[in-house]
Specification:
Blueprint lengths: L8 E3 L16 E9 L6 E6 L5 E3 L20 E8 L12 E5 L3
Antiparallel strand pairs: 1-2, 2-5, 3-6, 4-5
């Protein structure tokens, strides 16, 4: 057998990422990159917890133009597109959380 490090996903951008000021009723999309720095494929990739006014562009994972699938190979990257569409004034925040099987 060959031992490898478990899958380890990271997401691009600073934490927290700031969409800036967006007018009520407008939509601003942003592309985030997921990277698997582990030696095992991340499988059963699933986002949990994303809520309005944040959503995948186009309505579903990985978002319009996103490249992620339910599996991310070792040392590979893919993208997701998250839309911010405020419906009222004020601050909005959310956390992008992905669950996945890391091989361990």
């Amino acid at each position: 057998g060959v031992a490898v490090t478990p899958a380890n996903l990271t997401i691009s951008e600073v934490d927290p990422y700031n969409y800036g000021t967006v007018a009520t009723g407008a939509v601003l999309n942003h592309t985030f990159t997921l990277t698997n720095s582990g030696g095992f494929a991340a499988s059963a990739l699933l986002e949990t917890g994303l809520a309005a006014p944040f959503a995948y562009a186009g309505g579903s994972f990985p978002g319009s133009g996103g490249t992620c699938t339910v599996t991310l190979a070792p040392s590979a990257s893919c993208t997701v597109v998250i839309a911010y569409a405020p419906t009222g004034t004020g601050l909005n925040s959310d956390t992008i959380v992905y669950s996945y099987f890391n091989g361990a």
